[in-house]
Amino acid sequence: MEFVLPLVFHEQWSALEPLLKSMTPPSAPNLAPWYALALAHSALKNGTVEGLDDKVKNFLATTPPSGATTVTVSDSQVGTTRLTLDQKLYADLLKSFFTELFQQGYVQYFPEVQNSSGFAMLPENERAALLSRSALHMLASGNMQQAAPLLEAALTAAPQWADAHLGMALVEKSRGNGTAAR
Question: Fewer CB near the last or first residue (10 Å), C or N of the chain?
Answer without folding.
Answer: C
